[in-house]
Design a protein that fits this description.
The protein is α/β, with parallel strands linked by helices. It contains 7 helices and 12 strands. The strands form 3 sheets. It has a 5-stranded mixed sheet, sandwiched between helices. A hairpin with a 4-residue loop joins strand 4 and strand 5. About 50% of the residues are buried. Its EC number is 3.1.3.7.
Length: about 240
Amino acid sequence: MTDDELACDVAQAAGALLLSLQQSGADGPRGDREANALILRMLRAARPNDPILSEESCDDPARLESRRVWIVDPLDGTREFAEGRSDWAVHIALAIDGVAAIGAVALPPRNLVLSSGAPPALPAAHHPARLLVSRTRPTRLCADVAAELGAETIPMGSAGAKAMAVVLGEADIYLHTGGQYQWDNCAPAAVASAAGLHVSRIDGSPIVYNRPERDLPDLLICRREWADPVLAAVAGCGSG
């Protein structure tokens, strides 16, 4: 089984478990806990020598000595899951030498798993552009950039759901400045890059994974034609 196939299988299995739990009325912590246990079991059985960085497990500094590290978010969008919403996701990624090389993002309520191994073709862009922002913590910078670009802002939960909306052509730009962690965007970054989208920090620099610091404060995933305008608008509006 290839790494791409493994990522898809694990994301699919965790997504099916979580969907069943959500339909039974389970809360977010239970979803996080049970999905994490399933993911760890599957990855360790298939790739016993690879370290795993998971939101729901203690960090093992030994990962810093490995070229290959699985970076996972068992339930991205815990609040949305608990509220019975559909905008939550499962993230399974493999970083190799700091790069988001392999990724699968499951959107279980939509019965979708998007992967770096078989990304969908990108549909036509929207006019005006659609810019995705946090449903619960939108930042002033995102609002200012949207105004500068003449873009429509669309609130949505889950980083994975937002990133995959751009991959699916349902939106054009996902700009985030409210703080994230490596597991929030590693799998989405891998899928988005494979789909031909621009992926970077909001200053245009590449995202480096498997660093000692688990936090990643900002992210830009967008259609390539919007990369330069968005980065210019961010620089002009400030980075706060």
